[in-house]
Amino acid sequence: MSYPRTEDEGVNRAAVRGMRGTIGCAAGGTLLALLVLAFGFVAPAHAGDSDVLVVGDSLAVGTLPYLSPMLEGRNIVAAARNGITTPKGMSLLRRELRVVTPKTVIISLGTNDGASPKRFADRVRRTMSLLPENACAVWPTIIRPKRKGAYRGLNRVLHQAKRRDPRIVVVNWEHAVSVGAVYLPDGLHADAAGYRYRSEMIAAAIDRGC
Description:
Blueprint: H1 13-17, E1 23-24, H2 25-39, E2 48-56, H3 58-70, E3 75-80, H4 86-97, E4 100-108, H5 117-130, E5 136-140, H6 152-164, E6 168-171, H7 173-178, H8 192-207
Parallel strand pairs: 2-3, 2-4, 4-5, 5-6
Antiparallel strand pairs: 1-3
């Protein structure tokens, strides 16, 4: 499996604009995988309800091909781009919420942010303020190589936000990596088994009542 592009690589926006479509779990799993791996971005074309909205960076891109079959029976809409920060993710989220009303939002953001917990806390608060009041947010913790800056303070922010906002479900991705359940070949992106494991963690969080 080739790894998703990193924060230094762009996306083919022109091709993406021509590939907008609704993703159904059962029939669209294979198509979703091809679109995600090729372009790193998929978005809906119709107004209506969505069971699950996925917003995030390259970790979301890498997870989607495995997550889609695990959430079979749910409508999935994805807006994921490699290398984006939380503010860019918020822009994608605002756009998607104009056409879909998700019950669950999976958020993979923060890995490309700076190391300031205070700034990240404000971004998490603003992100959550965009969501419908009855929507649940699944947000995996962060782990990244030293070159991208400290990250544990950002994870503390996520856990604190969870205590304040019952809509947030934190998936402890950092712990999974730290105990050796997942391998990150470049210190940031998982291999195929790792992305499958991350998907299982997210799907389990949703099944527990998110």
